[in-house]
């Protein structure tokens, strides 16, 4: 029996993780459910999975479980004796738990790319044990098992292109349109990031740290069918690719069952129905965030952190209908231009860069009266 902690249990990754658990009650036991707040969904999950521990940010009175909360609750989680921690927390809220778990050498499967990007420089030696859940990184993780590290010549991440990659004018796009992802069922933040192609930019940085591969060897391609999730090219010219129907339960299941494979219940790929698989070069003029993200990644230091925070805040403003879709890259770029922070040396530095970026962001928005362009 493998014991699991599910962080972000009520979110998109969390609920799909619990779907996997339900399929394998003989193999898996949930020992901890963690969510930011007490919701109907969480209460139902507690009833169904009967974990020993529940973490809620503000705490709650739940007689049947041990309740952990606040900052010391996070520390307590990172000290629990659990076989695998699944981090499905969205955005920068996932940084602290990721840091504590890695510091304590816990086995971690994570979908939280923001944490890897922000902790990038300071936890470099800790990533080789992480099992990625992000679909492209899960794919690459699987492909990499077909050769030696020094035999890898290129790592290729695919992007669906989101809903707008063929559209000419990106002005005036509504929140509803942007949240309507053609292929993947995901949380709001990552869905908007997919529509701006920022998601692929962040994933390039994530791949750089997770697999310790230089940026020159990482590439992104638009693949509208979302059947091929990632590819690794080896020095002999051979490419190993990972294909499946786009369903997050496959990478989640693999992260849990690794190095074995289990049934997921996901419909098997029908190659005849899939038909043509297309690949296109992403248009970085139309989707400047891809380029901006790659540059921030290559610059390193504090820049990947500033990028991550500025994007999360800009996406939030877009979701609140306070800025236009086309202003998301402009705001992020403005914040990056203004930012001048020294490279982080430790976790405390990372947190202070996050806080200072938030202030910088607010100031820039206020200067322009809430409007950017
Ligand atoms: Mn992804």
Which CATH C-level class of the largest domain is it? Mainly Alpha
Number of domains: 2
Strand order of the largest sheet: 4-3-2-1-5-6-7
Q: Please provide the count of β strands.
A: 11
Please give the largest β-sheet: 7 strands, parallel
Q: What class would the helix/strand composition place it in?
A: alpha/beta
String of helices and strands: EHEHEEHEHEHEHEHHHEEEHHHHHH
Ligand species: manganese (II) ion
Q: How large is the radius of gyration?
A: 20 Å
The proportion of residues forming helix, as a percent range, comes to: 40-55%
> How many individual helices?
15
Distance between termini? 56 Å
Give me some keywords for this one:
373 residues, globular, 11 strands, 15 helices, alpha/beta, binds manganese (II) ion, 2 domains, Rossmann fold, Rna Polymerase Sigma Factor, Chain: A, 4-stranded mixed β-sheet
Describe the protein's architecture and organization.
The strands form two sheets. The protein has a seven-stranded parallel beta sheet, sandwiched between helices. A four-stranded mixed beta sheet has the order 9-8-10-11, with helices on one face. It contains 15 helices and eleven strands. The protein is α/β, with parallel strands linked by helices. The chain has two domains: 2-129, 3-Layer(aba) Sandwich (Rossmann fold); 137-246 and 282-367, Rna Polymerase Sigma Factor, Chain: A (Orthogonal Bundle). Residues 134-136, 203 line the site of manganese (II) ion (MN).
């Amino acid at each position: 029996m493998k014991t699991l902690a599910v962080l972000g249990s009520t979110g998109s990754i969390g609920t799909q993780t619990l779907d996997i658990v339900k399929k394998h009650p003989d193999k898996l036991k949930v020992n901890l459910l963690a969510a930011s707040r007490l919701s109907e969904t969480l209460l139902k999950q507690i009833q169904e999975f009967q974990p020993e521990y529940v973490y809620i940010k503000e705490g709650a009175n739940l007689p049947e479980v041990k309740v952990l909360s606040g900052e010391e609750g996070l520390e307590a989680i990172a000290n629990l004796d659990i076989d695998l921690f699944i981090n499905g927390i969205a955005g920068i809220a996932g940084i602290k738990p990721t840091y504590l778990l890695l510091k304590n050498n816990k086995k971690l499967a994570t979908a939280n790319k923001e944490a890897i990007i922000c902790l990038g420089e300071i936890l470099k030696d800790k990533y080789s044990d992480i099992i990625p859940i992000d679909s492209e990184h899960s794919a690459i993780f699987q492909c990499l098992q077909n050769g030696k590290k020094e035999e890898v010549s290129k790592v290729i991440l695919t992007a669906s292109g989101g809903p707008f990659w063929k559209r000419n004018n990106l002005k005036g796009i509504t929140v509803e349109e942007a949240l309507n992802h053609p292929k993947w069922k995901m949380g709001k933040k990552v869905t908007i990031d997919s529509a701006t192609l920022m998601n692929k930019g962040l994933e390039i940085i994530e791949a750089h740290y997770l697999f310790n591969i230089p940026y020159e060897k990482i590439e992104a391609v638009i693949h509208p069918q979302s059947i091929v999730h990632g590819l690794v090219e080896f020095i002999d010219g051979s490419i190993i690719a990972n294909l499946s129907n786009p369903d997050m339960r496959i990478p989640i299941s693999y992260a849990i069952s690794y190095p074995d494979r289990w049934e997921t219940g996901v419909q098997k790929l029908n190659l005849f129905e899939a038909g043509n698989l297309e690949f296109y070069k992403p248009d970085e003029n139309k989707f400047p965030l891809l380029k901006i993200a790659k540059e921030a990644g290559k610059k390193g230091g504090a820049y990947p952190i500033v990028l991550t925070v500025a994007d999360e805040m800009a996406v939030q403003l877009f979701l609140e209908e306070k800025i236009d879709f086309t202003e998301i890259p402009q705001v992020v770029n403005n914040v990056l231009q203004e930012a001048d922070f020294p490279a982080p040396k430790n976790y405390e530095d990372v947190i202070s860069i996050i806080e200072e970026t938030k202030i910088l962001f607010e100031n820039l928005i206020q200067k322009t009266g809430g409007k950017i362009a």
